[in-house]
Design brief:
This protein is an alpha+beta fold. It is built from 2 helices and 5 strands, in the order H-E-E-E-E-E-H.
């Protein structure tokens, strides 16, 4: 994360439109970049695998302003472990 990035926690109801666009429950959304923009980047876990399998995709608003999944779901192998390491380092 670059120094200009801002991180905020949001309730899952804030991601209903995004979850609907990719066909997952709001509890599956892990991170969203540019949630109010016309182009949105999403990290999510579509399954109950342990450890979680993390995927990303890109959403764009169509002419009617509806978010549509326009990217292929890309699996991000190793990202869960990277997140865990980062959290453990920050928590000491």
């Amino acid at each position: 994360m670059s120094s200009g990035d801002r991180v905020e926690w949001h309730d899952r109801v804030d991601f209903a439109e995004i979850a609907d666009a990719i066909g997952v429950d709001t509890t599956r959304i892990m991170a969203v970049r540019n949630p109010a923009a016309d182009e949105v980047f999403v990290l999510f876990t579509p399954t109950d695998d342990d450890p979680p399998r993390i995927f990303s995709t890109e959403l764009r608003r169509d002419r009617d302003g509806v978010l549509r999944d326009v990217g292929a779901w890309l699996e991000r192998p190793g990202l869960w472990e990277q997140i865990k390491r980062s959290v453990e380092e920050k928590l000491g």
